[in-house]
Amino acid sequence: MTDTPESPKRRQYAPDFLTELFRNPLDPGYADAAARRAKEGPRTGWRGASARGLALTTLVLVGFLFAIAYRQTMAEEPARGKARAALVDQIRTRQDVAEGLEQRAAALRAEVNALREANLEGGTAERLRNLEALTGLADVEGDGVTVTVADGDAHVDVVTGGSKKVSKVLDRDLQDIANALWATGAEAIAINGERLTATSTIRAAGEAILVDFAPVTSPYEVTAIGPDDLKDRFEETGTASLFRALVDKYGMKFQVDDRDDLKLPAAAGGDLEHAYRSPEPTPPATGTGTPATSGTGTPTPTTPTSPEGD
């Protein structure tokens, strides 16, 4: 179909639509309207008055709606402020209560330890203290290392202007560091002051990282107590090599330092669920020889049998 003088000329689009759009940004309809206005002149009479009246009415109506919306927003603002202030006060009150309970628990724990020391024999008490230190239920002191990792600088998108961290420390990164330290001889480990035990979990919850139930933030300090060559042994692991590569490629922070006189706190909340009394050797019966022992050398108690006929 060809264009005729009677029909308006339609816009022809090239295969490259974006190029054509930037080359001719004005739609032909606007050009036709401008030509018609230049030919006929501005509207006069009732048509012009009605157009101006309609525009004025529209502006007044829009302004009225904006005024109502603003008034409602300002009327609801005091209620929102009061609710926010009440929530803040409630959070602070609960934090104060939690801190008081933690202090009370620490005092009771110290009282229990004192009573235990007074009632247990020296060898048994010493063995119990060693077991608590190994399981993370007691404070420990000693020399070791501190592994510090932190998020890299934020990457700014030149198109959108938004920032995004492409070098963010993840929960599995802290897991790898802790496992590497355990494997190289660490005896006690804490992450930002949160002591690790055999049942500790390091997991992500949204944008936060939780050690057990305590949130930790960047920079992360993984502190470990262990042998004198713990730093050298950790530096030779694949985990340390991986983080050095991440530093070079993404700008993450990674540093390993020797530390003296480290103090790691006890883990919080070691609930006792099961307890067993240590087995005592059963004295041998007359004429039966020595008691049988298990593979570890611990005497295996025998169960007495009832005489026949009972």
UniProtKB/TrEMBL annotation:
Keyword terms, alphabetized: Coiled coil, Membrane, Transmembrane, Transmembrane helix
TM annotation in the entry: 49-70
- Short name of one Pfam family for this protein? DUF881
Ranges for the region named Disordered are: 265-310
* Keyword Hydrolase (UniProt): no
**Protein origin, superkingdom:** Bacteria
Q: Does the keyword GTP-binding apply?
A: no
Question: Per the database entry, which stretches of residues form a coiled coil?
Answer: 91-118
Which InterPro entries does the annotation name? DUF881 (IPR010273)
* Gene Ontology annotations for the cellular component aspect, listed alphabetically: plasma membrane
Low complexity bias (residue ranges): 285-310
Family membership, please give it. Belongs to the UPF0749 family.
This one is known as Uncharacterized protein YlxW (UPF0749 family)
Species in which this protein is naturally found: Catenuloplanes indicus
Q: What is the lineage of its organism?
A: Bacteria, Bacillati, Actinomycetota, Actinomycetes, Micromonosporales
